[in-house]
């Protein structure tokens, strides 16, 4: 029976091998490579959260980095001010709730006010600057321009019994890997649910959806809050792998996450990871090779990919019948 | 080759792209120049140095990634570079302290954060820039000073020190004001300066300085003297000649310094990178940093990083700016304070070199 | 005036119309009949050039326009009233009327006043955004828009849709009149058989993308396909 | 079921509703005709809450809905088909139907995909509309007439108590128009329905009472035959030989 | 009294700077539906044109002429090669123009180096307005803004070219079916909007830092202006510039500037919430 499934569904083989390869990665590479991949997987979760709103609900967010940054800051601040054992868990919850709350506030304000489309995007773009300014001037809490670094190191496990320091690349890597798979499955469940279906209908014509009896602003706030929470979660995971500074909320970061999703393929979920990994490794490779020119190449590449692969890598793969590899919904 | 295996690697992290890219290229050249100089005079403990250079895109994230790579994958023995404070803080905390590798930061800053055993501050902290500068300004132009800074820690601390010094020297801070980073229209700010009728306008503005000064002149404030701790060889070309002429600067190094060490340094540097090549105080600090690392390593007698770090405290070096030394208690450099005036052609006229000034900082190694 | 030989049109890789051949003579009023989804709209889009022909030839006034751009076809004198009207929603009625003046010409001019003699209601709405017009008014505007130009051939896709019965009859008269005055030729897609009959003499029946019958409208009305789908079978 | 009382609405200088009064009984099918631009679609916009009247009341099941939001009115059981077909072009035919069928459920049902037996109703509609072969097609690729049918299917699945159809047969062949009329008569039998239509054959076939709107008021009401005889209606609407 | 007059002039001058710098953005964004993240770089190129003139020893006034022409031509080139393929994919234009902005910045760095550029002042001194001294150049900027706005209005609302552009934006394929050569109008529309960006950069060059990164700051502000004013309407740009510029001048007179800036953006959000289509929408 199982054999039969495996035989008929090459997808399972490919996914299984991919999973094993990911599990084995830290064992066969250096700490640097491990933390690099962990960081990129964190970015993948961040991109996934954007795909949920951008790819599926048509909410254009040019300031998604706000939520990533808010998550990271919430994590850092919580670790700094909650000095007891097991604080990491609270910090992570905090890092999910704070961006979610910002998302709900913003969503309540704008979606209930019927602000949508590019308007919404540009408002979030403008807010990026505001949140950055707020962080910089509240330097007592956030460390201001210098960034936030004097907090207790995040630890997982059972306090007192067995603890894992997230600053260890391997621990961070497996944590992030599990989180990435969990977030992917959650997102997949959401978009495949009836809620996900309605969200996609809202993307196309929100007025029409309303005539069918759906409270459109509410549903938009819900999906937006979920995405913001997920972005915040990725921000929290980023803390042991990177550095908390106002740079996390830059417009560049908001732009680059759009690029990751677009390159991977909008509205495919898995494309968020594919795009993030592809672009990030490409960037790492190019900037190692060409210290000065790499950014120019990235610009050219971004243009070419968008012109040549309008549906992203996953869309392209779909067309060339690599269907079995990518577990996207067949429509 | 056998020789290649013996090289000792030093990592340079530069803002080659992004907001800080004004500084990256000249810093990279300075570090490269220092390494070449050391190599051609026999290297360190008989081994040649090799330079690693990476671009951080002026971002802490990439800064961490690249410096981790230089240390973990390439085996760099020390890190050098960076201007932006967020990148500095990131590299100091997440790379230097974590992987126990010395990191030399070449730029003026407020001091106090980032400190630690592996962090070597080679730039001036506020007291080094201001101790002699403020009395000089009061005496030369008058007691009334107006300060404007961007709204973050370095300007805030600097302006605080200005205020204290003014009190001590019979001056008066007639106004202070903090502005956002992306302030692009300065008309309101300038109006308030004008109303306060200061003798000296003293901005602590990084990115927006050029806009501010351009508009300052436009509003007819050209008569009031401008004092700055930021003005250097890289900044000066941004101003039209009529605006830069007469600006008062406090720095620890200038290309136009006339002493044998500097003359040799500049001559060699221009020979290597062309007549138009520019060094500013950060570049010189980076050059000094590499030499200090060499001295520490030689003093330690081995390439063991801990020994090198131990050897750093109290070392001194005869730098292009004059003799400098590392304060053992803080790993901060004692630097010269030089006051200069900008000429219309963009060169600096050195007015006074106050010699080595010890840094005052909370940092403890 | 218009000759179509062996034409294939479709969307991307899906072919909808296959080997269509038809002609519209000078001043002739031709109708195209067929049930829903058989490719009538697709064919008109192929003729105006919104969709590329993958095979075959389109000749207009003696010149081959198969490869011509859609805007050049319009400038050569083909006017198109699409199904679903497609007026310029956010622009005023006046601007919509002006937008048709490049048809059969080469510059954007002002519309001729005679369009108001066809549809007087538009005159009171000149500065209203076209998107806020009622459905029927938009349909009239779409017709008035092409009539502002100097089309030699009109492609009409279900022009009676959403228009009240009395005006449908008027439109038939207007089209007849313009044909008499200016020798306008017409290719009409229509479900309303009565309307089709009242203006056209000759027609084609299209089924699954191919022409299956041709002849006078009266004959076609007897055709089995037409009988089955375009009349009330009880 | 639906009472419209003394409804007024102006757009700038244009009076579209001028004291309109209409009463539709529970289970009744009512046909609304009237010249182009006389305010029929506007009436639907008012009932569904898309626009608010200047004055007057709209009562559905006795409740005045004038101040309610669009989705709240939809949740009261008002379902609408638009004048030009409005479907979700990027979704499949089936997804369109599912969304319509589940519009009035609460959020928990939505996220848990609990459909409460909507599947069988969807199958039923797919069969009735003969859409089985298209069920997994992108609905945006359907032809005009097919989209009209799909939207009618969506309206039917929305569990409506009051159905508003704006020109449901526009662009359909006569045979399909007839089938649509039959479909409405069968499936909607016993449901309160308002139909706007210019297709006289369809109106006749519907065998429902007809209200003629003119300049924001009811001009006359009656069976189709009565209306067709009315001199004034012929003059302003039907033309000389309908 | 003096404070009032000067502060009002400051408000007007700031508003006109904002209007001038966001006009081209508004045309591309509001009218062509393209979110042009490279607009800041077009602005930067305009400023570099003036600096290049100074460097060549020519009068910087030539820069004011050269900038719109060169930048307009570059805009047309971008349209022909990239934007043209993306009109039906508005979000992708955002990503592609992000790529373009990187490319322009890096190419400028390669050609001019990473450092700051200097430019000569175009005008110095001040003029007496209502009895008070005000910088002549700022008055010149106000004047130029008024002229450019009028010209743009005339172009878009009074000429057949403007009508064509608006038809194309409204419904591309239908406009073609009515005989309008959309590729030509697109190219010119994008070119003219780019030229506006270049001109704004040239005009602003004596007042701002000239370096490869200078466009970024103006881009974000420009978008806020366009949004607050209302997309797709040129009146909107004026209204948006007036509200944001006047508001910033007024509030920063009273409050800590950083707080003023935060308040301004939050205010913009409130305005958008209350008037989702912008002030003029
Ligand atoms: N954009 C599109 N992409 C792919 N297929 C399409 C597209 N538009 C229409 N089709 C398909 O082409 C076929 C013909 O459509 P067309 O609109 O030409 O029919 P029609 O004869 O005009 O029908 P109707 O009378 O309903 O308007 C239909 O089966 C439809 O599904
Ligand atoms: N938002 C609006 N602003 C201005 N006028 C409007 C607006 N909406 C509708 N109108 C006008 O109100 C009138 C009534 O329009 P409505 O769409 O209700 O007509 P209708 O009876 O449905 O006509 P049709 O049979 O042609 O669809 C029309 O003249 C229309 O131009
Ligand atoms: Mg059709
Ligand atoms: Mg209507």
Automatic annotation (TrEMBL), chain A:
Molecular function GO labels: branched-chain amino acid transmembrane transporter activity
InterPro entries named in the record: ABC_transp_permease, LivM-like
Keywords for this protein: Cell membrane, Membrane, Transmembrane, Transmembrane helix
Main location per the UniProt record: membrane
Gene Ontology cellular component annotations, sorted alphabetically: plasma membrane
Record-annotated membrane-spanning stretches: 12-29, 36-56, 62-82, 89-111, 117-137, 171-191, 221-244, 256-279, 291-317
Localization of this protein: Cell membrane
One Pfam family this sequence matches: BPD_transp_2
Keyword Cell inner membrane annotated: no
Annotated membrane topology: Multi-pass membrane protein
Name of this protein: Branched-chain amino acid ABC transporter permease
From TrEMBL, chain C:
Top-level taxonomic group: Bacteria
BP GO terms, sorted: L-amino acid transport
GO MF terms, alphabetically ordered: ATP binding; ATP hydrolysis activity; branched-chain amino acid transmembrane transporter activity
Family to which the UniProt record says this protein belongs: Belongs to the ABC transporter superfamily.
Keywords tagged on the record: Amino-acid transport, ATP-binding, Nucleotide-binding, Transport
Domain ABC transporter: 2-233
Name of the protein in its database record: ATP-binding cassette domain-containing protein
UniProt xrefs under Gene3D superfamilies: P-loop containing nucleotide triphosphate hydrolases (3.40.50.300)
CDD domains: ABC_TM1139_LivF_branched
Pfam families: ABC_tran (PF00005)
Xref: InterPro entries: AAA+_ATPase, ABC_transporter-like_ATP-bd, ABC_transporter-like_CS, BCAA_Transport_ATP-bd_LivF, P-loop_NTPase
TrEMBL record, chain D:
PANTHER family per UniProt: CONSERVED COMPONENT OF ABC TRANSPORTER FOR NATURAL AMINO ACIDS-RELATED, HIGH-AFFINITY BRANCHED-CHAIN AMINO ACID TRANSPORT ATP-BINDING PROTEIN
Name the UniProt record assigns to this protein: ATP-binding cassette domain-containing protein
Recorded GO MF terms: ATP binding; ATP hydrolysis activity
Source taxon at top rank: Bacteria
Database matches in InterPro entries: AAA+_ATPase (IPR003593), ABC_AA/LPS_Transport (IPR051120), ABC_transporter-like_ATP-bd (IPR003439), P-loop_NTPase (IPR027417)
Gene Ontology CC, one term: plasma membrane
Alphabetic keyword roster: ATP-binding, Nucleotide-binding, Transport
SMART domains for this protein: AAA (SM00382)
UniProt cross-references to Pfam families, sorted A to Z: ABC_tran
Domain ABC transporter residue range list: 2-240
From TrEMBL, chain E:
One GO term of the biological process aspect: amino acid transport
CDD domains referenced in this protein's UniProt entry, alphabetically: TM_PBP1_LivH_like
Originating species: Sneathiella litorea
InterPro entries, per database record: ABC_transp_permease, ABC_UrtB_bac, BCAA_transport_permease
One of the Pfam families matching this protein, by short name: BPD_transp_2
Main location, first listed in the record: membrane
Official protein name in the record: Urea ABC transporter permease subunit UrtB
Source superkingdom: Bacteria
Keywords: Amino-acid transport, Cell membrane, Membrane, Transmembrane, Transmembrane helix, Transport
């Amino acid at each position: 029976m199982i054999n039969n499934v495996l035989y008929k569904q090459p997808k399972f083989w490919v996914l299984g091998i991919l999973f094993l390869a990911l599990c084995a990665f830290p064992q066969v590479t250096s700490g640097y490579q491990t933390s690099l991949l962990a960081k990129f997987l964190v970015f993948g979760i961040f991109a996934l959260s954007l795909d949920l709103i951008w790819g599926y609900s048509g909410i254009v967010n040019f300031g998604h980095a706000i939520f990533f940054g808010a998550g990271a800051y919430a994590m850092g601040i919580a670790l700094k001010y909650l000095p007891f054992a097991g604080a990491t868990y609270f910090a992570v919850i905090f890092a999910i709730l704070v961006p979610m709350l910002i998302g709900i506030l913003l969503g309540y304000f704008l979606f209930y006010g019927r602000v949508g489309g590019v308007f919404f995007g540009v408002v979030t773009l403008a807010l990026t600057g505001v949140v950055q300014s707020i962080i910089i001037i509240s330097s007592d809490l956030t460390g201001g321009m210098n960034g936030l670094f004097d907090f207790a190191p995040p630890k997982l496990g059972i306090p007192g019994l067995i603890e894992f320091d997230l600053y260890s690349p391997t621990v961070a890597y497996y944590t992030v890997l599990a989180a990435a798979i969990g977030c992917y499955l959650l997102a997949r469940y959401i978009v495949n649910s009836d809620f996900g279906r309605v969200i996609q209908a809202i993307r196309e014509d929100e007025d029409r959806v309303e005539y069918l009896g759906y409270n459109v602003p509410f549903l938009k706030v819900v999906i937006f809050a979920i995405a913001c929470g997920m972005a915040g979660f990725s921000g929290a995971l980023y803390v042991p792998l990177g550095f908390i500074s106002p740079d996390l909320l830059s417009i560049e970061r908001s732009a680059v996450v759009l690029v990751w999703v677009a390159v991977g393929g909008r509205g495919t979920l898995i494309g968020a990871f594919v795009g993030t990994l592809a672009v990030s490794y490409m960037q790492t490779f190019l900037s190692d090779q060409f210290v000065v020119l790499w950014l120019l190449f990235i610009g050219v590449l971004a243009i070419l990919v968008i012109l040549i692969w309008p549906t992203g890598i996953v869309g392209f793969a779909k067309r060339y019948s690599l269907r079995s590899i990518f577990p996207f919904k067949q429509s | 080759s056998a020789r290649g295996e013996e090289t000792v690697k030093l990592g340079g992290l530069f803002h080659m792209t992004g907001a800080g890219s004004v500084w990256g290229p000249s810093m990279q050249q300075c570090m490269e120049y220092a390494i070449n100089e050391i190599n051609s005079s026999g290297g360190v403990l008989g081994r040649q140095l090799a330079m690693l250079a990476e671009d951080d895109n002026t971002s802490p994230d990439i800064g961490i990634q690249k410096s981790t790579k230089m240390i973990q994958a390439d085996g760099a023995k020390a890190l050098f570079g960076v201007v932006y404070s967020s990148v500095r803080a990131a590299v100091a905390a997440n790379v230097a302290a974590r992987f126990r590798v010395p990191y030399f930061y070449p730029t003026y800053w407020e001091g106090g954060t980032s400190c630690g055993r592996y962090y070597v501050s080679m730039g001036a902290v506020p007291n080094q820039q201001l101790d002699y500068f403020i009395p000089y300004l009061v005496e030369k132009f008058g007691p009334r000073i107006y300060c404007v800074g961007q709204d973050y820690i370095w300007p805030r601390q600097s302006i605080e020190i200005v205020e204290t010094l003014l009190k001590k020297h019979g001056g008066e801070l007639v106004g202070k004001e903090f502005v956002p980073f992306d302030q692009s229209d300065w008309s309101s700010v300038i109006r308030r300066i004008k109303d306060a009728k200061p003798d000296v306008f003293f901005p602590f503005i990084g990115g927006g300085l050029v806009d501010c000064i351009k508009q300052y002149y436009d509003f007819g404030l050209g008569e009031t003297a401008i004092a700055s701790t930021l003005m250097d060889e890289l900044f000066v070309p941004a101003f039209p000649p009529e605006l830069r002429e007469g600006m008062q600067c406090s720095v620890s190094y200038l290309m136009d310094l006339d002493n044998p060490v500097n003359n040799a340094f500049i001559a060699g540097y221009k020979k290597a990178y062309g007549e138009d090549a520019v060094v500013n105080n950060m570049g010189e600090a980076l050059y000094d940093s590499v030499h200090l690392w060499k001295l520490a390593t030689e003093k330690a007698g081995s390439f063991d990083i801990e020994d090198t770090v131990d050897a750093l405290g109290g070392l001194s070096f005869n730098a292009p700016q004059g003799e400098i030394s590392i304060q053992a208690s803080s790993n901060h450099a004692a630097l010269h304070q030089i006051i200069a005036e900008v000429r219309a052609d963009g060169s600096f006229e050195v007015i006074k070199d106050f010699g080595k000034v010890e840094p005052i900082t909370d940092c403890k190694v | 005036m218009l000759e179509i030989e062996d034409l294939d049109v479709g969307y991307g890789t899906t072919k909808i119309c296959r080997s269509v051949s038809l002609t519209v003579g000078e001043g002739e009023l031709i109708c195209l009949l067929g049930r829903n989804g058989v490719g009538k709209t697709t064919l008109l889009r192929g003729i105006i050039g919104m969709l590329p022909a993958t095979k075959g030839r389109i000749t207009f006034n003696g010149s081959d326009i198969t490869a011509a751009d859609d805007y050049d076809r319009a400038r050569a004198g083909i006017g198109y009233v699409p199904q679903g009207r497609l007026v310029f929603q956010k622009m005023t009625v006046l601007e919509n009327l002006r937008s048709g003046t490049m048809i059969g010409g080469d510059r954007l001019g002002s519309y001729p006043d005679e369009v108001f003699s066809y549809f007087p209601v538009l005159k009171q709405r000149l500065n209203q955004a076209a998107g806020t017009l009622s459905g029927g008014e938009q349909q009239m505007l779409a017709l008035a828009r092409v009539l502002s130009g100097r089309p030699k051939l009109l492609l009409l896709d279900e022009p009676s849709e959403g228009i009240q019965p009395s005006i449908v009859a008027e439109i038939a008269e207007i089209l007849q009149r313009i044909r008499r005055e200016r020798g306008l030729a017409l290719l009409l897609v229509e479900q309303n058989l009565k309307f089709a009959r009242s203006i056209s003499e000759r027609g084609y029946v299209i089924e699954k993308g191919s022409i299956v019958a041709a002849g006078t409208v009266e004959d076609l009305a007897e055709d089995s396909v037409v009988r089955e789908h375009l009349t009330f079978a009880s | 079921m639906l009472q419209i009382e003394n409804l007024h609405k102006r757009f700038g200088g244009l009076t579209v509703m001028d004291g309109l009064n209409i009463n539709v009984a529970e289970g009744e099918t009512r046909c609304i005709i009237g010249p182009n631009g006389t305010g029929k679609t506007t009436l639907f916009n008012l009932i569904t809450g898309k626009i608010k009247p200047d004055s007057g009341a709209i009562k559905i099941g006795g409740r005045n809905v004038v101040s309610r939001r669009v989705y709240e009115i939809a949740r009261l059981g008002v379902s609408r088909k638009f004048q030009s077909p409005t479907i979700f072009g990027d979704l499949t035919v089936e997804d369109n139907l599912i969304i319509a069928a589940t519009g009035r459920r609460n959020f928990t049902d939505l996220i848990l995909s609990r459909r409460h037996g909507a599947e069988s109703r969807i199958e039923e509609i797919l069969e009735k509309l003969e859409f089985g072969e298209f069920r997994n097609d992108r609905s945006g690729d359907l032809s005009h007439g097919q989209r009209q049918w799909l939207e009618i299917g969506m309206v039917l699945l929305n569990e409506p108590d009051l159905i508003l159809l704006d020109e449901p047969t526009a662009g359909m062949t006569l045979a399909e128009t007839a089938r649509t009329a039959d479909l409405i008569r069968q499936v909607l039998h016993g449901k309160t329905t308002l139909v706007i239509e210019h297709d006289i054959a369809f109106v006749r076939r519907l065998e429902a009472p007809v209200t003629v709107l003119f300049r924001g008021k009811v001009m006359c009401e009656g069976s189709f035959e009565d209306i067709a005889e009315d001199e004034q209606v012929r003059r302003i609407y039907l033309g000389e030989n309908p | 009294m003096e404070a009032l007059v000067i502060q009002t002039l400051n408000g007007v001058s700031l508003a006109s700077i904002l209007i001038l710098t966001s006009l081209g953005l508004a045309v591309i964004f509001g009218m062509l539906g393209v979110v042009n993240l490279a607009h800041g770089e077009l602005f930067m190129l305009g400023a570099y044109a003036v600096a290049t003139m100074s460097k060549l020893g020519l009068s910087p006034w030539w820069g004011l002429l050269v900038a719109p022409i060169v930048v307009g031509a570059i805009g047309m080139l971008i349209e022909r090669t990239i934007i043209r393929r993306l009109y039906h994919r508005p979000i992708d234009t955002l990503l592609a123009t992000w790529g373009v902005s990187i490319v322009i910045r890096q190419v400028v760095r390669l050609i001019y180096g990473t450092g700051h550029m200097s430019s000569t002042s175009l005008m110095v001194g001040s003029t007496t307005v209502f009895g008070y001294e005000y910088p002549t150049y700022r008055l010149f900027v106000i004047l130029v803004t008024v002229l450019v706005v009028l010209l743009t209005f005339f172009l878009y609302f009074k000429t057949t070219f403007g009508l064509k552009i608006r038809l194309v934006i409204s419904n591309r394929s239908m406009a073609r079916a009515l005989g309008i050569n959309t590729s030509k109008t697109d190219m010119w529309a994008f070119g003219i909007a780019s030229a506006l960006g270049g001109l704004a950069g040239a005009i602003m060059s004596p007042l701002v830092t000239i370096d490869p990164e200078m466009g970024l700051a103006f881009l974000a502000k420009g978008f806020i202006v366009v949004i607050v004013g209302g997309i797709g309407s040129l009146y909107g740009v004026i209204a948006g510039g007036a509200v944001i510029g006047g508001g910033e001048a007024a509030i920063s007179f009273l409050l800590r500037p950083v707080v003023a800036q935060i308040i301004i953006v939050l205010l913009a959000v409130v305005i958008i919430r209350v008037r989702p289509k912008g002030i003029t929408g």
